[in-house]
From TrEMBL:
Residues 70-234 form the Very-long-chain aldehyde decarbonylase CER1-like C-terminal domain. It is a multi-pass membrane protein. One of its GO terms (cellular component) is membrane. It comes from Solanum lycopersicum. It is found in: Membrane. This is Very-long-chain aldehyde decarbonylase CER1-like C-terminal domain-containing protein. Its main location: membrane. The lineage of its organism: Eukaryota, Viridiplantae, Streptophyta, Embryophyta, Tracheophyta.
Amino acid sequence: YINVCRLNQLKRVSSYLCIISNVTFQEEQLNNNGELHLRRHPQLKVKVVDGSSLAVAVVLNSIPKGTSQVVLRGRFSKVANSIALVLCEGGIQVVTLDEEDYKRLKAKLTPEAATNLVLSKSYNVSKTWLVGDGLSKDEQLKAPKGTLFIPYSQFPPRKVRKDCFYFNTPAMIAPKHVENVDSCENWLPRRVMSAWRIAGILHALEGWNEHECGDMILDTQKVWKASLKHGFCPLTKISAA
């Protein structure tokens, strides 16, 4: 499923952009995160953008300053992989409870950065959890009291803990000059847009002449700065169950 979004509402944009917005389209096992689509359509005249880079940037900037350790839970994905690599390389410990995820990540890290990747059998190791699809109720119940759940997935986890806090899925507040904006997803507040959709708009505004799909990840700092430059604002709302 491909959502073609017309960007004429932003006065500086008059082109069309192809945005991959369906979760199943991005599955690595299904079509290598959309790369198969490009192979089948090599003459495609629009850019295919899965939005992973901005989603990664939003999650990284949602982690409280001073955090030294995070728990990574939920189904492994392109976004989760990129977040974990950036954190480990930046000196922040990433704890995973899945041995396969641990092996996959460790293989991509330098020996120095790999020291920040931890395989644990205990859930009670950190109060900052980065979570994706597949996070179960039982896992949430094992988290320490006061845990902050930060989703890296397009869909939010079911909130089951009243003594913990839940951040929104990767998203940003739309620029003030963008009119007639309600909510991008029914679980997001008004005037808040999903990072995956914003990424397509930024791609067009900046005139980036490259696809973002498959294993491709753009410079997350560049994408984050571009979002701020064009008036998108970080979302800081945290809620309890």
